[in-house]
Design goal:
about 20% strand, 16 strands, globular, alpha/beta
């Protein structure tokens, strides 16, 4: 049974620890960015071309951070045929705070009550958009530690990204990602290959605890993001060079050594600029780059520039975006599906990009590839790390199951309801006015939610929140599934589409540990 792993399974190095399964949730409604440009009376293309955004998902007052995370966790467990007693660690990364003491993780524990499993480590982790990555690192570290009891870890990243009326509002979004972590993963962490940079700055922060809106210094935020990317890439390259040297290789690392690259995506245009930034780093660090032919052709004028002086240099940006255009198309563009169509989800953003990458490839196309992942959170904290995709892409393999589970992303995006910018604006105003009210009954439509979505039913006079789940079958009543603070959830019928069951983390020969 879970937690009773054989001694042979509890060695120091479980094999290929990483992401076994992923689930993604985004709201069922969106506003079109071109229509929002007209509504906001800004020049055409400001949001769609300047930011690279097409649509922005948003939540009514029926959804909050608790409901988003309840939805994505239950969806992952159901679609993968997992039992709640197979999970030994659950950690939530979020910056959407609706309670200064009670964690989102404790709310999610209501889903575990029928299983009787309360032996679940982990809690919430917060630092802007970096909290999901910190939670993921903690989960991987737990599986690779002496604390591991043989069960899975579950990581949840979720946020509702909203801004006050103004230039930042079109960079919002909402959503949640759940990731199952354990050994023998199709997306395995490459040990020792993390480049991290942490520094103090007030680029984006939320000092008003009764408001969902942040204080943003846009220019400083871009500078912090790009400077963190520079530092993280430098540390990552040094670490992989050290590994290669120990193996007897003097090879230089470059962008060509990544099969794919995904980035935290506040907006899509910044991601394209970020890949160009990494090419700039390759160019400046190369002892003798060929500026006559190849990717660095025509860039000799930039040989002696200082990176810290180029964050807003349009000539440098334009030249290296042009030079990296093919790399962007090959390694990164496909990762921007969710970002372009749903917007910035904060902590889930980079993992929405990872899911987009997986969803748009076959198992054989990504098998064996190294995927670079850059995670950034304002304030600020950042890490560049890499995942190695398993070579096994046979039908029924863990990679095949993962790709299959995400193959409906585009169809789900296309099934959403478009609303007028005026309706979006009214929803933002309603959230602003009711965000911290007690004795409140939400006004948003339940019928507009996706089947299987958890939603807020009321907030009582002591600010205690109650939730129900919209049935997967609309013929069933939702009220039987209300979650109270002291009662267990009702059993939920299985969804129509269910992925093949994933075996327990310690079951069978797949759980063998390598030293």
């Amino acid at each position: 049974m879970p937690g009773s792993a054989a001694i042979s399974c509890l060695g120091p190095w479980p094999k290929d620890v990483g992401i076994i399964a992923m689930e993604l949730y985004f709201p069922s409604q969106y506003v079109d960015q071109a229509e929002l440009e007209q509504f906001d009376s800004v020049p055409a293309g400001k949001y769609t071309i300047g930011l690279g955004q097409a649509r922005m998902g948003f939540c009514s007052d029926r959804e909050d951070i608790n409901s988003l995370c309840l939805t994505v966790v239950q969806r992952l467990m159901e679609r993968n045929g997992l039992s709640y007693d197979s999970v030994g660690r659950l950690e939530v990364g979020t910056e959407t705070i609706i309670d200064k003491s009670k964690s989102v993780k404790t709310v999610i524990m209501q889903l575990f009550e029928d299983s009787g499993n309360t032996d679940v480590e982990g809690i919430d982790t917060t630092n802007a958009c970096y909290g999901g990555t910190a939670a993921l690192f903690n989960a991987v570290n737990w599986v690779e530690s002496s604390s591991w009891d043989g069960r899975y870890a579950l990581v949840v990243a979720g946020d509702i990204a909203v801004y006050a009326t103004g230039s930042a509002r079109p960079t919002g979004g909402a959503g949640a990602v759940a990731m199952l972590v354990g050994p023998n993963a199709p997306l395995a962490f490459e040990r020792g290959l993390r480049g991290t940079h942490m520094q103090h700055a007030y680029d984006f922060y939320k000092p008003d605890l009764v408001s969902e809106y942040p204080v943003v210094d846009g220019k400083l935020s871009i500078e912090c993001y790009l400077s963190a990317l520079d530092r993280c890439y430098s540390v990552y390259r040094n670490k992989i060079h050290a590994q290669w040297q120990r193996e007897g290789s003097e090879k230089r690392f470059s962008l060509d050594d990544f099969g794919f690259l995904v980035f935290h995506s506040p907006y899509c245009k910044l991601v394209q600029k970020s890949l160009a930034r990494l090419m700039l780093n390759d160019f400046l660090s190369h002892p003798s780059p060929n500026t006559e032919t190849g990717p660095f052709a025509g860039l000799e004028a930039f040989r002696d520039i200082r990176p810290e002086e180029t964050y807003f240099d349009r000539d440098v940006e334009k030249a290296f975006m042009k030079a990296s255009a093919d790399l962007f198309e090959e390694k990164t563009k496909c990762s921007l599906l969710i970002s372009n169509q749903n917007g910035n989800m904060y902590t889930p953003s980079v993992y929405g990009c990872l899911a987009s990458l997986i969803a748009q490839h076959t198992p054989s196309q990504i098998a064996g590839q190294r995927v670079g992942v850059f995670s950034y959170g304002s304030g600020f904290a950042a890490t560049l790390y890499s995942l190695r995709v398993t070579q096994d892409h046979t039908p029924g393999s863990n990679l095949d199951k993962l790709v299959s589970s995400l193959s409906d992303l585009k169809a789900r995006l296309d099934s959403r309801k478009k609303v007028l910018p005026a309706v979006f604006s009214e929803n933002m105003k309603l959230r602003e006015e009711t965000h911290h009210l007690a004795s409140y009954v939400p006004r948003g439509s339940v019928e507009d939610l996706f089947p299987g979505t958890w939603y807020l039913t009321r907030v009582d006079d002591k600010h205690r929140r109650e939730y129900a789940r919209r049935p997967l079958d609309d013929d069933l009543p939702a009220e039987s599934e209300i979650v109270h603070s002291t009662t267990a959830t009702e059993h939920i019928p299985s969804p129509a589409k269910k992925m093949p069951r994933i075996p327990a983390a310690t079951a069978g020969p797949e759980a063998a540990v390598s030293n």
